[in-house]
Amino acid sequence: MHPHTPYFMYTVTAIQLITFIISLYLNFRSSGSPFAKISMNGNIMIGPETYHLIHMGARYSPCMKNVEPVTANATIQCFPGMKGSLNDGVNCALSDYCGLGMEVGEQPNQWFRFITPIFLHSGLLHILFNLIFQIRTGVDMEKDFGSWRIGIIYMATGIFGFAFGAYNSIATSVGCSGALYGLIGCLFLDLIQSWKIIVNPWAELFKMLGVIVVSLSIGLCHFIDNSAHVGGFISGILTGLIFLPTIAFSKRDLRIKRTAMIVSIFVTAYAYYWVFKTFYSENQKCKWCKYINCIDYKDWCKNYE
To answer: What is residue 9's predicted lDDT score, i.e. its pLDDT?
Structure first.
């Protein structure tokens, strides 16, 4: 079988590079430098100010639903160089931050912020790490499995990751990491399903688990949206069961894998229903969920309370 041409990965990568350049330009236009000041409480990824990313479509819950205290009628201190609609040079409306067609006083409902952050990155380090993996691994997977399969899995897991990460969080989040963890979930699934034909599968399993554990541990740093990673990985396994081709070693094995695919369809549908219902619910809270994202040190978890 001839390898598929990885049109999807090349296209997504090009869009991500273009949007990153635009974000640096916007920061340069407002501050005279393409990069924000590096700080532990700001952007340490060597990239633009956070509000530029919000203005371009980052996941930011107050732009998507009413979140106390940042409601539609709230006033927020303007960033330097930011022209607010209140015209006092100090305070800005929520719509000034959100942009993208939002009017002053309009109720926030920018649902597309579950999608657009996939194409944005917070800095040079962020986009470098993501695109290295995306080009090295994602391209190979697309060559093996085809553009439509990988395209669906990539977008579906990226969206689920941002929805899962938005639960209990007002932190700004961007990047394709959730989608990349979705691909890792598919690789994990492929390893399990192809166990019998892999040379030294236990070594491959421990190697993969080691990478997953280390990367998720690094994700506990407060400036990383680890929930998006976890959500992407889980949804990657589920969508992989639905869309990825598999090898059946016997009739029994075929029945098991077909049953797993059918069950996964219902589980995936419910998971998406649950994660969006939970996000838009004002009453449901998860006290322990913040520990997926951060170590409870100083004020690292303040955006996940």
So the answer is: 96
